[in-house]
Amino acid sequence: MAVEKTKDLWVFIETEDEGTAKSVGLELLVPGRRLADKQNGKLVAVILGSNVAPALEAVKAHGADEAIVVDQPELKHYNTDAYAKVLCELIEKYGPSVMLIGATNNGRDIGPRISCRLGTGLTADCTALDIDDETGNMAWTRPAFGGNLMATIMCPDHRPQLGTVRPGVFKKSEPGEVKDIPVIKEKVEITDAEKRVELLEVINEMAGELVDLENAEIIVSGGRGVGGPEGFAPVRELAEVLGATVGASRAAVDAGWIPHAHQVGQTGKTVGPKIYIACGISGAIQHLAGMSSSDVIIAINKDPDAPIFNVADYGLVGDLKVVLPILTEKIRKY
Ligand code: FAD
């Protein structure tokens, strides 16, 4: 286990090919700020990649107190062994108290890898973060038992305290002034022998349509209540007039009415749009886990007792087949 040398809270900033920061890293600076202040530590953004100047600018504008940057060509594309080596060396050297990692594909790979190597704990897929007032330990909250309860987990004797957080759970702050913060530049030697996997080629080919639910400002989602694959046609029409992205419940996805890329919820995507319109979705806890942080929730359901109305800001009781065409027409004319 690495030794805690500071009360600093680190946020891992995953970068893209262009050296920009993935959204989730900037999102995590928001809870990171609150938690770092609570334990009187610095909020440190840890940036790995190649030509990462854009990511550094972004963390400066999103409130980091300090940045540690490892900018090397070998880090342009994610590589488990290379990233694990760099992060473990940094953690051993600087001794942070906490590190937050976005639960992207790469984050889900690197988190367990470094926790195992450092002999510390990791709480995966968290949806809420706090620091326990009595002990000063992180209190990581995540869904457990198929989403039927929320478990708060602590790793009291482990340092650093590591956790992954799903993209979209926290909202990015608006970028502020680009502050002149201390930037520590590190170089870590990575030999070919240390990398057990070699990247030969990157093929940018999407299987199926690209569905960017995480960054959508408006989402219109359909559930079992749409009645079949054809029931998604009026959902898509409403989405089109609103400039929205189409989402779905798992029931609709499991029925084969719409591809999995559209699924919102515990086993789908976590979203936080300005407006979320749930059409024929009952409001099961696993669906709510993925969308309840939306700014405004509008539910359309023929059952006035559907649980979705408990979280909705606006509710419309009625049959989708009647309501959706009227709504779409009115908005089109507006
Ligand atoms: P239903 O619960 O069947 O609700 C359909 C609703 O449509 C009803 O409220 C009904 O009144 C209404 N309706 C019917 N006809 C009409 C009409 N003509 N007009 C208006 N309203 C109508 N679910 C997810 O969504 N996302 C997940 O990621 C997810 N992960 C899961 C993970 C696990 C481990 C488990 C166990 C479950 C998960 N589920 C998930 C499934 C979840 O428990 C529910 O089964 C699912 O969300 C139900 O989808 P639904 O609301 O579309 O269907």
From TrEMBL:
Q: Which residues form the Electron transfer flavoprotein alpha/beta-subunit N-terminal domain?
A: 9-200
For this protein, the record's Pfam families field holds: ETF, ETF_alpha
Its GO biological process annotations read: fatty acid beta-oxidation using acyl-CoA dehydrogenase
Checking InterPro entries in the record gives: DHS-like_NAD/FAD-binding_dom (IPR029035), ETF_a/b_N (IPR014730), ETF_a/FixB (IPR001308), ETF_alpha_N (IPR033947), ETF_asu_C (IPR014731), ETF_asu_C_CS (IPR018206), Rossmann-like_a/b/a_fold (IPR014729)
> Which UniProt keywords are present, listed alphabetically?
Electron transport, FAD, Flavoprotein, Transport
Q: Does the keyword Transport apply?
A: yes
Provide the GO MF annotations for this entry.
Answer: electron transfer activity; flavin adenine dinucleotide binding
Q: How is the cofactor bound?
A: Binds 1 FAD per dimer.
Identify the Gene3D superfamilies for this entry.
HUPs, TPP-binding domain
Q: Which family does it belong to?
A: Belongs to the ETF alpha-subunit/FixB family.
Protein name as annotated: Electron transfer flavoprotein alpha subunit
Originating organism: Roseburia hominis (strain DSM 16839 / JCM 17582 / NCIMB 14029 / A2-183)
